[in-house]
């Protein structure tokens, strides 16, 4: 069931989203060669605790997962697309890191992700990140009253195909509110004019995932969580929580 939020409820989600943005900024600032993914998770935990927020990631166990998720961020390196479990793996100069983070504050949830290089970026990584971010911006721009979910999907998917990128099947954005994952599902490719009609008060997490090699194929690692590109190419994952309003899309996961 799709839930429509009041202005006051969206304001509460904005506060949760602000915590997410703070955590992502702190993790990016701390990320450097020699820093472990587990240490970055500790950075995010500190931000959440300092804001009086909890993590919707920690302990989350969907049907596909063999274990509850053990961290407050997903940390996915290079050919890992998403759902990477923070381990003692230490970052190296030239890595490409995707970080996904959520926060629950006063009963409301925010969810966002970013991808960035560790050290000076390789030109192809810079292009991948820039194109993924541009696709997110196009998806957000399509999230207006009178459009449909398919318009968001088409904006993201068209950007992927123009750039020659792969897009994982069955993964995409989602509704969000009191729970991290709510209806409707937002595929990262689709036909315009199709799907649920966008209405004021609808809160959505839009999250392009682009695979540099051009193939859509992925596989899941031995931990049962981490999703990798099948061809070993690098991936980017960038996400914001937004609200559909009469005045246009409202970003909720920014500082």
TrEMBL record:
List of residues binding a divalent metal cation 1: 100, 111, 239
EC numbers for this chain: 3.4.11.18
Catalyzed reactions per annotation: Release of N-terminal amino acids, preferentially methionine, from peptides and arylamides
Superkingdom of this protein's organism: Bacteria
A GO cellular component annotation in the UniProt record: cytosol
Enzyme superclass (EC): hydrolase
The record's free-text note on cofactor binding: Binds 2 divalent metal cations per subunit. Has a high-affinity and a low affinity metal-binding site. The true nature of the physiological cofactor is under debate. The enzyme is active with cobalt, zinc, manganese or divalent iron ions. Most likely, methionine aminopeptidases function as mononuclear Fe(2+)-metalloproteases under physiological conditions, and the catalytically relevant metal-binding site has been assigned to the histidine-containing high-affinity site.
Stored InterPro entries: Creatinase/aminopeptidase-like, Pept_M24, Pept_M24_MAP, Pept_M24A_MAP1
One annotated GO molecular function: initiator methionyl aminopeptidase activity
Pfam families the record matches: Peptidase_M24
Family (UniProt): Belongs to the peptidase M24A family. Methionine aminopeptidase type 1 subfamily.
Assembly and interaction partners: Monomer.
HAMAP family: MetAP_1
Function: Removes the N-terminal methionine from nascent proteins. The N-terminal methionine is often cleaved when the second residue in the primary sequence is small and uncharged (Met-Ala-, Cys, Gly, Pro, Ser, Thr, or Val). Requires deformylation of the N(alpha)-formylated initiator methionine before it can be hydrolyzed.
Protein name per Swiss-Prot or TrEMBL: Methionine aminopeptidase
Natural source organism: Streptomyces albidoflavus
């Amino acid at each position: 069931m799709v839930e429509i939020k009041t202005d006051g409820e969206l304001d509460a989600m904005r506060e949760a989203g602000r915590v997410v943005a703070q955590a992502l900024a702190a993790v990016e600032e701390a990320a450097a060669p020699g820093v472990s993914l587990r240490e970055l998770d500790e950075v995010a935990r500190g931000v959440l605790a300092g804001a009086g927020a909890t993590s919707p990631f920690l302990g989350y166990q969907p049907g596909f997962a063999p274990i509850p998720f053990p961290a407050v961020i997903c940390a996915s390196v290079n050919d890992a697309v998403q759902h990477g479990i923070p381990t003692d793996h230490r970052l190296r100069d030239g890595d490409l890191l995707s970080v996904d983070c959520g926060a629950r504050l006063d009963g409301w949830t925010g969810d966002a992700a970013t991808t960035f290089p560790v050290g000076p970026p390789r030109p192809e990584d810079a292009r991948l990140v820039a194109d993924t971010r541009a696709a997110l911006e196009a998806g957000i721009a399509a999230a207006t009253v009178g459009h449909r979910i398919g318009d968001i999907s088409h904006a993201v998917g068209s950007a992927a195909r123009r750039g020659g990128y792969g897009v994982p099947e069955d993964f995409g954005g989602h509704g969000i509110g009191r729970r991290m994952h709510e209806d409707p599902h937002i595929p990262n490719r689709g036909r315009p004019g199709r799907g649920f009609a966008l209405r004021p008060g609808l809160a959505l997490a839009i999250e392009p995932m682009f695979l540099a090699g051009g193939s859509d194929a992925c596989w899941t690692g031995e931990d049962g969580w981490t999703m990798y590109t099948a061809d070993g190419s690098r991936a980017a994952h960038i996400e914001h929580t937004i609200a559909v309003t009469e005045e246009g899309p409202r970003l909720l996961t920014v500082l």
